[in-house]
Amino acid sequence: MDCLFCKIIAGEIPSSKVYENEYVYAFKDINPMAPVHVLVVPKEHICCADEVNTDNSIYVAKIFEAIPEIAKQLGLTNGYRIINNCGEDGCQSVKHLHFHILGGKKLPETLA
Ligand code: AMP
Ligand code: ZN
Question: Mean pLDDT throughout 57-79?
């Protein structure tokens, strides 16, 4: 499968890893939109939030269990934002489910 994030998880494309466990891989976004900008992805290929179901939702649970650990590791003691873009109207550019963690400064109230 020709998936950028599957290749990153497999180590075929380099990334700046910040966290990994059996279910979850997290790495720095190549084009950071905030002082801290990390992507958290499931190790199984799930296309998008719209493809989460009872068979694969363990990955989403594991991602959200990992996020507080990742945030602590990154020093995000004053909060952060989690973003998921889904599908064409959500402007999802990489078709492997991922959650953006943004922080390190007071973020604008909305990101258009
Ligand atoms: P989205 O627009 O929600 O699909 O987000 C995709 C994100 O992946 C963007 O913020 C990109 O900057 C990021 N990205 C694309 N290629 C890479 C890469 N090779 N390593 C790290 N982040 C990447
Ligand atoms: Zn993938």
Answer: 98
